[in-house]
Every structure is written in C-alpha cells, then in structure tokens.
Amino acid sequence: MRFDVLTIFPELFTSVLQEGILRRALQADQIAVNLHNIRDWTVDKHNMTDDRPFGGGEGMVMKPEPLASCLQDVQEGEQGRVVLLSPRGEQLNQKIVRRLAGHEKLVLVCGRYEGVDERFCRKYVDEELSIGDYILTGGELAAMVIVDSVTRMLPGVLGCADSAANDTFSRGLLKHGQYTRPRVFEGLAVPEVLLGGDHGKVYEYRFLESVRETLQRRPALLHSVEFSVAELRLLKKVGLFQQVQEAIKKNVH
Ligand code: 9D3
C-alpha cells in the first residue's frame, strides 16, 4: 500500500510513523507514506495556501490551484484513490477501512481552516471521509487514523497473534474482558474458568462475556450479528437469548 498525504503540516506525521506497527510496516516495505507539503506547490510570492471566502464569512478557504498541481504530480504513474478528510464526509468505520485497504494507492488530502475550495472537491476528490462528529483543527489527525487503521488490515502486517481476520469476535460483538497476572489484583480474582485449561469452557465463557458486554454497552450492534445454532442454544441455556432478541427488536433499521 502506498499513501500520499497532501498537507500543510507534514511534520505532524513523523512521530506516528516512527513507532510500533507502522514503523515495522514501513521498514518491511509493506507500506510507503509520502508526505507532500502543499505549500511547495504555491506560485505566489507569499506561498499562500488559503484565501478569503467569496461571499464573506468567517475564516479562510484552501486555494484549489496548489492542491491541484500537487495532486497532479502525485498522480503521475499509478492513479490513487483520492480521499478528502472533511467533517462533512461519510463517517469512517471498519467496513470502509477494509474497502480502502483493497486499493494499491491512497491519496489523503488534509484540509485546514474552514475547508477546501468546492471546485477542487468536485474535480479531483473520489470520496470525503470524517472520523466522527466532533471538530478537529484539520484533516491531519484523521489522515493518520486512516493510515493506521488501513495498515493493520494489510496481509502480513500483524503477527498471527493479533491477526485482523483471526479476531475471534470480529463479527460485530464487542470483545470480552481480558486478564493477565497477577491472579488477584486489589481483591479482584481472575475468573476461575480462565485458569482451568478447558478450552471449550474458556471459548463459551468468552463468547457469553462478549454478548453481555455488547448488550450493556452497544446493544444496537447485535442487529447485525449472526449466531450459530450452538450459540443460540447456549444463549437460551444461560437466559441471555430473550435479552438479545429484545435488543434487536428495539433497533429496527
Ligand atoms: C463551522 C463549520 N465547521 C465544520 C464543522 C468548519 C470546520 C471545522 C473544522 C471545517 C474544518 C475543520 C477541520 N476538520 C477537519 O478537517 C476534519 C474532521 C473533523 O473536524 N472532524 C472529524 N473528522 C474530520 S476529517 C477532517
């Protein structure tokens, strides 16, 4: 995967790329991240990347020409999918992350100020993405979220231990709680079943804990979970089946 990032603050990205899984993926050439300072494509003597909005109003708007000429250079050779990070975009989720990971090249355009000139969006942007309903100071942190979440989906980036596809409950349930040593912490013991070594019992316990966590924290998620016959039988046995059914009914999309 190749990421090209268009930004007026390329240095914001350096620390994120210098540690952990992203660093390893870069070293192994599983990803490349090319940072482009939009200011390098300005032609006026003050290197202006923004200007006042026609029609008046608060703040500044990113000029279309530096963005377009930067993009033109970045799109030499292989054509990447152009993603604008924008608060009015579709909200990012794991399904979108998976789809983005299927592209060979992503061009991430980071807006600043009040936004990007609408004509640049219309001419060059394939999709607009937001990372949630809160206000950031610019698209850079959102672009980092995309680089991070897409990279961990690429084959070979995660070890087997935390394989993205291998995630036991990557099926729409929340993850069960996890425990490590010590066996007793501040008076709280690790659940007995996890110490016994009966893998079948451990699997059942974790499945039920996942369902309980989901019921409590994100009941709407249960709408799109598919349970096997054995799982449904287990839910009935422990008296969770009816709660799950009610949670699903309350959320008819
Ligand atoms: C007054 C209108 N504001 C829109 C809500 C203007 C505005 C605020 C903040 C325009 C741009 C920004 C900077 N934010 C982003 O570029 C951004 C963002 C975000 O603010 N929240 C969630 N996802 C994203 S992706 C890019």
Structure write-up:
There is one protein chain. The chain is α/β, with parallel strands linked by helices. It has 2 domains: 152 residues, Alpha/beta knot (3-Layer(aba) Sandwich); 67 residues, Trp Operon Repressor, Chain A (Orthogonal Bundle). It is built from 9 helices and 9 strands. Strands 2-1-6-5-7 form a 5-stranded parallel β-sheet, sandwiched between helices. Strands 3-4 form a two-stranded antiparallel ribbon. It has a two-stranded antiparallel ribbon with strand order 8-9. Helix 3 packs parallel to helix 5 and helix 4 crosses helix 6. The chain is elongated, with a radius of gyration of 23 Å. The model has no long low-confidence stretch (mean pLDDT 95). The structure holds ligand 9D3. Ligand 9D3 binds next to strand 5.
Concise summary:
The protein is an alpha/beta fold and 253 residues long.
List keywords for this structure.
5-stranded parallel β-sheet; 253 residues; Trp Operon Repressor, Chain A; alpha/beta; Alpha/beta knot; two-stranded antiparallel ribbon
Write the layout of secondary structure elements.
Layout: E1 2-7, H1 14-17, H2 20-27, E2 32-37, E3 50-51, E4 61-62, H3 64-74, E5 81-91, H4 94-101, E6 105-110, H5 118-124, E7 127-130, H6 140-151, E8 184-185, E9 188-189, H7 199-217, H8 229-237, H9 241-249
Parallel strand pairs: 1-2, 1-6, 5-6, 5-7
Antiparallel strand pairs: 3-4, 8-9
Helix pairs in contact: 3-5, 4-6
